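Hi V.,

You were right to ask for the full record rather than a summary. Here it is.
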Amino acid sequence: MRDRTKLLVRPADKPSGNVMLWAALSLLAASFFSLAACGAPAPVQVRLETVVQGLSQPVQVLQAPGDDAALYIVEKTGRIRMAQGGRLFSQAVLDLSGIVSRGGEQGLLGAAFHPDFQQNGWLFVNYTDTRGDTRIVRYTVDRSTGLADPSSAKLILTIAQPASNHNGGMLAFGPDGYLYIGTGDGGRAGDPWGNAQNLGTLLGKILRIDVDRGDPYGVPEGNPFADAAGARPEIWAYGLRNPWRFSFDRATGDLYIADVGQNAWEEVNVQAAGSRGGENYGWNLTEGRHCYPQGRACSFDGFALPVAEYSHGQGGGCSITGGYVYRGSAIPELAGRYVFGDYCTGTIWAIQGGAEATGLRALEVLVESGLRISGFGEDHAGELYVTSLDRGVVCKIVRASGP
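Predicted structure:
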């Protein structure tokens, strides 16, 4: 995510210049899209239905293995809440609010249940501590209470953060059973430390670790830089600015990474399920399919190029929020399509899924929500959810009524 304090003041990355021209472009964009609050129908027969409210800055929705009824919601302010049947339970499953830094882009940013959660009760979290550094910690959920035991905390990984923004924060177990971790480039503008292209640091990467072997973790033998001199063996892919968020297609195993851009372009990358890792997604030499900084000549040789992008101009948005490939049954026309959104505009798009095509894919607007879209979620049935940072709600993407 981008620095929220800046976003609330002004869309920093929108083009400067003639104010009247910008207003005209905004009106033109509005003529094509019908703005919809949570619950209003979208032009393609999709709408957002509020299912949970009363939250404090939600950023993620997930379900625990073996539990089809409860939704777990990650609040950036430091708690994991549980809701069932539209009811939000008052007691948090885990409350880290006293040890989490939560200004700007910091906070409790992600969580993941272990695939064998029903046997081991393990819940992993990703947060920034009071010093601003990233911590990956494992907790054990007590079966009798359904609550995480604070005394069970097991520190898995700490990553020093040189600035307060671009913390990444996503955690997800891949089809291979390994834990994947998204990290930003360390913050500020333009990656001043060169972290994203530096294999000697964990910043600006997707990491892959084995939390079932080793203490506190092991490095999978297949990691692309496990034996490379000077490289961190945990790295799975690199060249990322701030991957907010990534997800695996439950049907194919393909990995989708939404990377927040600098001043001009937001992007979606796809890594095929059969990949051996090691992809370089280009930052800070490229932004989307464009050279960075703008106007600089560059070569794209050796870079994995995004399959979708959108610009900050003409009302296109300014901070991507990654979602999921839809694999539910309630909206058949969305099957196999990747759904994602923009934090600034509230636009939710869909693109054709799959890792085979290499060209840019067309973006189709699903909903103009007007929400500050901070995260998505996927339940066991493959249905999708959206979180709004400012309104404190979780909405479900459902079929619109009517013709």
